[in-house]
Amino acid sequence: MTENSSSSYAAAGVDTAAGDLAVELMKAAVSATHGPNVVGGFGGFAGLFDVSFLTSYRHPLLATSTDGVGTKVAIAQAIDKHDTIGQDLVGMVVDDIIVVGAKPLFMTDYIACGKVVPARIADIVAGIARGCSATGTALVGGETAEHPGLLGPDDYDVAGAATGVVEADAQLGPHLVADGDVVIALESSGLHSNGFSLVRHILANNKIGYTDRLDDLGGIVGEVLLEPTRLYTTPLLSLLEAQPGAVHSLSHVTGGGIAANLARVLPVGSWVEVERSTWSPPSVFRVLSELAGSHLESAEGTWNLGIGMIAIVAADAADATIAALEADGIPSWEVGRVSMAARDFTGFEQGAKGVNGGAVRLSGRYSD
Question: PurM-like N-terminal domain spans which residues (predicted)?
Answer without folding.
Answer: 62-166
